[in-house]
Amino acid sequence: xxxxxxxxxxxxxxxxxVAAGLLVLAAGWxxxxxxxxxxxxxxxxxxxxxxxxxxxxxxxxxVSWVGTDSVSTLDLEPLSKAGVTWIAQMPFGxxxxxxxxxxxxxxxxxxxxxxxxxDAGILLTAQRARQRGIRxxxxxxxxxxxxxxxWPGDINMTSEADWQAWFSSYSAFILHYARLAExxxxxxxxxGTELERTVGHEAEWRALIGQIRQVYRGxxxxxxNWSGEFEQVKFxxxxxxxxxxxxxxxxxxxSPKKARLLAGWKEPLRRIAAVQKQYNKxxxxxxxxxxxxxxxxxxxxxxxxxxxxxxxxxxxxxAACYAALFETFWTxxxxxxxFIWKWYPGLQPDGPARRHADFTPQHKSAERVMSQWFLxxx
Length: 378
Prior knowledge:
- By secondary structure, the chain is of the alpha/beta class.
- Helix content is about 40%, strand content about 15%.
- It has an eight-stranded parallel barrel. The chain has a three-stranded mixed beta sheet with strand order 4-3-6, covered by helices on one side.
- Helix 5 (about 160-185) packs parallel to helix 6 (about 200-215), helix 8 (about 260-265) crosses helix 10 and helix 10 (about 315-330) packs parallel to helix 12.
């Protein structure tokens, strides 16, 4: 995840990193084992939940927070102004390929990882967010190192033995984060993201959920893909809410009007409502977002291409997509929140073009739409 290229911020971040490094060495935390250290548990136990009650409707007003090389109260201030009450923090596990049964756990900052994705970064970010009344969903992801375009939905073992090995390895991975979430008093945990070909192994998932419950006392969800995975999951009853990665295609028209987008939501709404009714669980969009392009509603799941920065931006379409999304779901009593993809700490209005061309609503019309809905009922 590239960083915003601001010389002042880099200078400040460097100083913060040096200071953080000295503190880490002094505390003896230069190596993070799979088990959460006792001194971390003691420190975390002294923390508190976010001050004040949640909004009256109990909804998660969230953004997907990009872990970078530092975090400050200045980074968090725009969230409070926008009515954000939750952030999703997303550390990564690594796999050599879609058929590789080993998940690599990396708990510290290092090669291809930012401090904000490390155990120490997650806890400090959550602590500083909590001081501003913002809660944390810990949402670990897997990253495949295979061919370009591979994603977690491609994970598929070739034998039953490999499936058992994969679940054993993944269990060690997610249980580490369950312990971290409990030690740091994090407010919710997502136990998996877009692992589409794994969810048919219902018995293994139920057993893993039981193990997670033994070490983490907060609410649990799973982030199922929009393409049909959320309808395939059979263990929603064992979780606290239904998580959907809500990148549903709404219109193939360039720059569609809001009325067309509202019409595009009718069928996805019907499907989501049917699953909600079947399991009688609240629904949260664990991710939802749109690019700043004329075709934002056609394939919302696609990441912008390099040449997209040369095309004219289309803030109006992005904002219309946000408006249609909120108007469709925010009035449903069973809909309990959304995490907007995504939010770059410290991004400025004149920041890198590649950032403003992608999914972030920051400094755009979409942010105003998001804030208007988030601030309702607060």
